[in-house]
Specification:
mainly alpha
């Protein structure tokens, strides 16, 4: 039996084991127990083992929750792979997925995240042309990112959200039987931003321009959803903690918050683009893009940071910018040779945003971060720090480019 056949057999076996466990523990046992209790025929000795049954049920629900969230992240990653491949080449995302070499339409099983790639041994099912492992890596990575955000923003009661008291309803059981819709909305909103920034990173990893359509979709989602569900806006523009999550629908405060975020994010993106500008790479990217499709895209760093400002607010844009500069400085410090880094500025914005989300609550207690306890002088000091780092980064980057030219 070959490796592919063994994998398919093992996958089916695990699937059947999981299906039997779900049917037995979550359907059959509760139904049988309820029936026996009604008829008073439940043996007293069986109650001694009930705690083990409950523990097994809780563990199974957690496992199902992890699988579902990971699968959901993988599905989005699969779609983003399609977006990142088609749109920069001037193609639409409508229609069935197909092999880019033999143009055979993919089966449903071929499109299943992770499973489809491994099942076909990383090859097209028909023409056996190798499929880049990037698709597998992207699906696994984004699946874990979805798990990370869901765990900290939903399953722990919003423990990393700023100016929030973590809720007592925690775990997958409460997610199913007592869902906190405000936390689900916030996490979904943040995951939408993560997916947009991740798409930017995928496109720029191939040295292609980010299409304007992707950015416009981000603007529509970032501006439209908070106007419909105000709970998605965590911090108002004036950092009044009484307005956290309770901003009136379509109020002037909501519009001002979005406008301030857009302006601050765009300004930070302009600063980040200036600090990391590489003329040689830009010229090479234009040549590479011209061989595929002639069109004008958007500056990926400016567009990405503008979306960060809209989704998370102008305060968050500052901390994401600081994380971005620290990441870029680390990359330059450890860079070897003249070969361009595969870790693009778009990827740095993505990682910086993820770091910000995971440390958001901690940052609100930091003196230099704009918060109700920070004064104007402290905020100004934080801005000076960002400007100094950007200037140093620009100077260091320019010096390296001069060495490459020389």
């Amino acid at each position: 039996m070959g490796k592919q056949a063994k994998f398919i057999f093992l996958s089916k076996a695990l699937g059947w084991v999981l299906l039997v466990a779900v049917f037995t523990l979550l359907i059959l046992v509760p139904l049988l127990t309820s029936t026996l209790l009604k008829t008073s025929q439940l043996p007293v000795g069986a109650l001694e083992y009930w705690k083990y049954i409950e523990s097994s049920q809780a563990t199974l629900m957690k496992l199902l929750g992890v699988i579902w969230i990971f699968f959901l992240g993988g599905c989005f990653a699969s779609f983003l792979n399609v977006v990142a491949w088609r749109l920069p080449r001037g193609r639409g995302v409508n229609g069935s997925s197909m092999c880019p070499f033999c143009e055979t339409e993919l089966l449903f099983s071929d499109n299943l995240p992770v499973y489809g790639w491994i099942r076909n041994s990383g090859q097209c099912r028909t023409c056996r042309t190798p499929i880049s492992p990037r698709y597998l890596i992207v699906e696994i990575f984004l699946g874990f990112v979805f798990l990370l955000i869901a765990f900290f923003e939903i399953l722990t009661g919003g423990s990393i959200l700023p100016f929030q008291t973590p809720g007592h309803s925690r775990g997958f059981e409460h997610l199913i039987f007592d869902p906190k819709w405000n936390l689900i909305q916030i996490a979904s909103y943040h995951l939408a931003l993560i997916c947009l920034l991740f798409t930017f990173s995928l496109i720029r990893s191939e040295r292609l321009q980010v299409p304007r359509n992707v950015f416009y979709w981000g603007l529509g989602i970032g501006i439209g959803l908070p106007l419909i569900w105000p709970d998605m806006t965590l911090i108002a523009w004036n950092i009044d903690t009484h307005q956290v999550i309770n901003i009136a629908r379509a109020s002037s405060t909501q519009f001002i918050t979005i406008a301030y975020g857009l302006i601050a994010g765009s300004a930070c993106g302009l600063l980040g683009s200036w600090a990391t500008f590489n003329f040689k790479r830009m010229q090479e990217d234009r040549v590479h893009q011209s061989t595929i499709e002639q069109f004008n895209g958007v500056d990926d760093v400016i567009a990405a940071m503008a979306l960060v400002g809209i989704f998370l607010g102008w305060q968050a844009a500052l901390s994401v910018t600081l994380f971005f500069f620290l990441i870029q400085a680390a990359l330059l410090a450890f860079k070897k040779g003249n070969k361009p880094s595969a870790f693009t500025p778009s990827a740095a914005v993505f990682v910086a945003t993820l770091l910000h989300l995971l440390t958001w609550k901690l940052l609100t207690d930091f003196p230099l971060w704009p918060s109700p306890t920070a004064n104007t002088l402290e905020i100004a000091a934080g801005l000076v720090v960002i400007l100094l780092i950007s200037a140093a980064l620009r100077k260091f980057s320019a010096a390296q480019q001069d060495l490459q030219v020389g």
